[in-house]
Write a structure and sequence with these properties.
The protein has two domains: about 140 residues, DNA ligase/mRNA capping enzyme (D-amino Acid Aminotransferase, Chain A, domain 1); about 120 residues, Nucleic acid-binding proteins (OB fold (Dihydrolipoamide Acetyltransferase, E2P)). Helix content is about 15%, strand content about 25%. β8 and β9 form a beta hairpin. It has five helices and 14 strands. It is α+β, with helices and mostly antiparallel strands. The protein is globular and about 60 Å long. The two termini are about 25 Å apart.
Length: about 290
């Protein structure tokens, strides 16, 4: 039994309870697609709970949401239509541990389903072709529609703290342009607790560099937010990836009302690009 990230990192040792739960499934060999989430008491998933569990070694509050079955006991299930794969997956999980959760689906009524998800403060929905076979990397077969704007960015620097705030003030963020250059996107300081501030500060220290990694310096002032004093910025090698949620992009192509969500250790910094707005919900069958 191994838990692998989408980039192939083996994280089995981080979540032994989840690994044990998957090992107990009635199968000799299986390849499962899933997402590990923290779940708050109100049922809403929490990215920060995963971070806390990783730091403490306690994964008791985490749930493994399984949504696809690719291989089972010698059979290439991934060659079958999605609707058949999910039925096989549901049967496999019928007596599973509470740490494992089958991700059910809603067929049709995509727009109403999306609006309900947003009303419950969920991240959004994913719509998939019910008749499609599994195709690695082919996102043309599924569509993610978000209620909140959430994206990953590369950390390119940090500012000194002010007042009683310890360790650091804000993280400077960037993304890769198609030509490979780093483009400044804004900064984030909200949503970072003291323990996480220390954790980030320690992760940033060995990455410190003297030269700015951006092609174009960030603006010293914008319509939103306080002025940026470049002399107080500590630049770092662009290796650390974080996820944030934000209100919108401004006319200056900067993030507005940004809140820190957590580190994304499963995604290489070189793959971080600015996301293109998706189509409206309800265009595909099989929303979940």
């Amino acid at each position: 039994m191994r838990l692998l990230t989408r980039t192939g990192l083996d994280w089995t040792h981080k979540y032994p309870a989840i690994a044990t739960a998957v090992s107990s499934l009635p199968a000799k060999q299986a390849y499962l697609d899933a997402e590990l989430c923290g779940v708050r008491p109100d049922g809403v998933t929490s990215f920060s709970m995963i971070q806390a569990a990783s730091d403490s070694g306690n994964a008791a509050g985490l749930v493994f949401f399984l949504f696809d079955l690719l291989y089972l006991d010698g059979e290439d299930v991934g060659a079958r239509p999605l609707i058949e794969r999910t039925a096989r997956l549901a049967a496999l999980l019928s007596h599973a541990s509470s740490a494992l959760h089958y991700t059910d689906h809603q067929t049709g009524q995509g727009r109403a389903f999306f609006e309900k998800a947003c009303a419950m403060s969920l991240e959004g929905i994913v719509s998939k072709r019910v008749d499609a076979r599994y195709a690695p990397g082919n996102r043309g077969l599924w569509l993610k529609v978000k209620c909140l704007h959430r994206e990953e960015f590369v950390v390119v620097g940090w500012t000194d703290p002010e007042g009683r705030r310890p360790y650091l003030g804000a993280l400077l963020l960037a993304y890769h342009h198609p030509d490979g250059k780093l483009v400044y996107a804004g900064r984030v300081g909200s949503g970072i607790g003291q323990a996480e501030l220390e954790r980030l500060w320690r992760r940033l220290q060995p990455l410190a560099i003297s030269k700015m990694p951006l092609e174009v310096p960030p603006p010293r002032s914008t319509r939103f937010g306080s002025p940026l004093v470049l002399s107080r910025v500590h630049w770092v090698r662009p290796e650390l990836v974080i996820e944030v949620k934000f209100l919108t992009w401004t006319g200056e192509n900067l993030l507005r009302q940004v809140v820190y969500e957590g580190l994304r250790e499963d995604k290489p910094a070189a793959e971080v690009r600015r996301e293109v707005p998706h189509a409206k919900p309800g265009t595909l069958a099989g929303s979940r």
